[in-house]
Fold these 2 entries.
Entry 1:
Amino acid sequence: MLYKRSSELFVEANKVIPGGVNSPVRAFKGVGGTPIFVKEAKGAYLYDEDGNRLIDYINSWGPMILGHAYEPVVNAVVEKAKKGTSFGMPTALETEIAQLAVSMVPNIDKIRFVNSGTEACMSAIRLARGYTKRDKIIKFSGCYHGHSDSFLIAAGSGLSTFGMPNSPGVTEGTAKDTLLASYNDIENVKALFEANKNQIAAIIVEPVAGNMGCIPPAKGFLEALRSVCSENGTLLIFDEVMTGFRLAKGGVQELYGIQADIVCFGKVIGGGLPVGAFAAREEIMNHLAPLGPIYQAGTLSGNPLAMAAGYEMLKALNTDPGIFSRLEEKTAYLESGIQKVLTDANVVFTINRVGSMISVHFDANPVYDFTTAKSGDNETFKKFFHGLLKRGIYIAPSAYETWFITDALTYEDLDFTIAAIQETAKEL
Ligand SMILES: *Cc1c(COP(=O)(O)O)cnc(C)c1O
């Protein structure tokens, strides 16, 4: 495959955009080489500026769960655009998508829409602090909750790729209110509660972690977080930006039957447009302005194009629950195919998977937290990435990312992918 045009475009981009990209992980720093510039995409495929076709396992980092340029979404956005793209006034569609989301997700009465997952998590934390009148939060190493200040402390993927455990520009004052715990380590969490009595507003967690590869919660871990929060008057925030509307219609709350106090959404909920949302029981949500004193706002929040895209996406997921079992079956098929060809090739690896989130770690040991996620062999990952890329398979350009399976993938695509992995394994 040739990347001539992509290389030229990257040179031009670097002159006017820092690092040539508008989000760091796109820059291929973790794997080397030139980022691929996309021209268009349809279904399971990306078409780049050099005319290459790639089978896409990233799907815009999750949103395109039904494939690229999914027609009902595209049509709804086109029709809406003709009628005006933003008003800064309420529209009926905002209520419709809110009603639909509330009907799909357990334990929420009200939802507010924002423009990104970052905004959703940032707002959820403010709500939790305002509601509990406490300052501190607990987050887990390797979990990513967007790039707002409170969360840029051991924040997984993008940051791990660049070896920046913290970011300059985050003040010590902010950092001191973020307490760090290890994923899947409940004793660690209990010790933090012991040392910070009546000070912890919230625990924020990716209930299935996806930003250090895919890491499932250990048996009993989420239940234990729920209990410790309830015992201490602390709110449990599920950051379902990645898992929401992907692992089940109602997300991880439904999948594992655990009740969160606040839930954050992004990615799938926008159908590929910039949308995030946070939701909770009425009693909590009513503390938000204009009903309550906790301020949160957005000029483009609830934007008609974004809401049209999100509504069509949620409607599709709501009316065909078979989507989730198809995704499970396709991803399980891919998993067992990869297991077989990598084992046959004597490659040292571990695969983690929950539903349509899957990651391959080049490590013999179980991967269950940030420390074990980081111990994988990065050099092998780079070869794996480039081996797949030259065979027309696009996975995330970082060893710390999950693959997102789309319903647009056929079994033929999966077989093609497994064969490409078999070939690539010979080069590792
Ligand atoms: C992607 C992601 C975010 C941030 O969402 P953006 O839309 O990129 O701001 C937050 N939390 C999790 C779990 C994510 O995967």
Note: The domain at 71-319 is CATH 3.40.640.10 (Aspartate Aminotransferase; domain 2).
Entry 2:
Amino acid sequence: MDLTKIISLSLLFFCLLIPVKTTAAVTCTNAVCRRDGPIIRFPFRLKSHQAQSCGYNKGFDLTCHINGAVNRTTITLPFSGNFTVEEIDYAAQEILINDPNNCLPQRILELNLSTTPFSGVYVNKFTFFNCPTSEYLRFRPLNPITCLSSKNSTVFATASSRMVDYLSSTSCRLMKTVEVPVPWPFYEQIVTSDLSDNLWLTWKVPECRRCEIRGGKCGIKSNSSREIICYDVHKPAIPRRARYAIAIGAGIPGALIAFGLFCYVYSKINSCIKRRRLVPSPEINNAQAHYLHSSVIITGLDGPTIESYPKIVLGESKRLPKIDDATCSICLSDYEPKETLRTIPPCQHCFHADCIDEWLKLNGTCPVCRNSPEQISSPENFTNS
Ligand SMILES: *[C@@H]1O[C@H](CO)[C@@H](O)[C@H](O)[C@H]1NC(C)=O
Ligand SMILES: *[C@@H]1O[C@H](CO)[C@@H](O)[C@H](O)[C@H]1NC(C)=O
Ligand SMILES: *[C@@H]1O[C@H](CO)[C@@H](O)[C@H](O)[C@H]1NC(C)=O
Ligand SMILES: *[C@@H]1O[C@H](CO)[C@@H](O)[C@H](O)[C@H]1NC(C)=O
Ligand SMILES: *[C@@H]1O[C@H](CO)[C@@H](O)[C@H](O)[C@H]1NC(C)=O
């Protein structure tokens, strides 16, 4: 970077400073229900602690509730009741909620977001089945929803249409099909899930993403208008020392150069901090960590790669390299003669070709053991002997 560029950049920053300092908004301080709880600020507000003008509208009102000796941030959804707020991501406009009584599937069955500001980030249709516990072994690969199950009946939920067809043909009773807000389409639950992970919701209005990403905060401009403004943009980017340097050095190129250099270094640090946000925090559970990990690093495989994995057409003997592989663990149907199967090279797990192909397009790992087939350079061939 040459000198003139630095000076002009510095002047630009200096000019940007002025309107920021003079912008006023309804001032609100952040709130929390407990020290490590989600920070509550616009568009949300903690009802008993922050003025009405600190939140966008009633839909974003939060309260604190003691549950299991913990002061929990709580949101009341009309028609659906109270949920614990686990996390709020202001820049992504996402809120993660769960059931304070640890039976989220029960709440999902009654979930109705139609009068809330929220909707699912991604939505999967899940069908709930109530199956006789005595036949549990037939449904072995499914994850039972323990809080809805009893001694005689076990409840499962699945997002796979083949699985729904299969369960409908058994003595299981179809309970309900509902739309579930999930963190990622086909995330883990392509076959089954106990649906205990947080619900991922987003809000579209007020739109503050751009403001948040620039380091600003949204708020209502004044008590008398509903206008939303973005303020405090880059305020933390100008520490006292730099402001002091500007104050005494106004007009002195040296100070401007120093400030320009500082801004350049700061922007590098800042983009690094932004990238670090992608690393899951320790509070995030394993499933979400897996999701975050896979959504950032692993994407699905391309068609030619999938096609390169060994395919097999089952003979009448239905013999397979692994004796216990009599059922496709994606759709849970038994293999039939003449069906086309595909195997994943490193682990030799088998699936119906049409099941695993769809899976691998979205997710580059084996659904059974989570090994990534990409790690293997030369797939072993396998034959139906
Ligand atoms: C807005 O109203 C709240 C009380 O409702 C008051 O505390 C605050 O000072 C007002 N702010 C402005 C800018 O008028
Ligand atoms: C829970 O948090 C709120 C907000 O900080 C506080 O007003 C309330 O007293 C807390 N409740 C308990 C029981 O600590
Ligand atoms: C839900 O939250 C509201 C608002 O804090 C409270 O008045 C109500 O008692 C709560 N309901 C239940 C069932 O906890
Ligand atoms: C949600 O509630 C509204 C209002 O009661 C109702 O009109 C709507 O049909 C409900 N939606 C679902 C999916 O139950
Ligand atoms: C479970 O099944 C047993 C035997 O069939 C029956 O006696 C019992 O009442 C059932 N319990 C429930 C909760 O349905």
Note: DSSP finds nine helices and 15 strands in the chain.
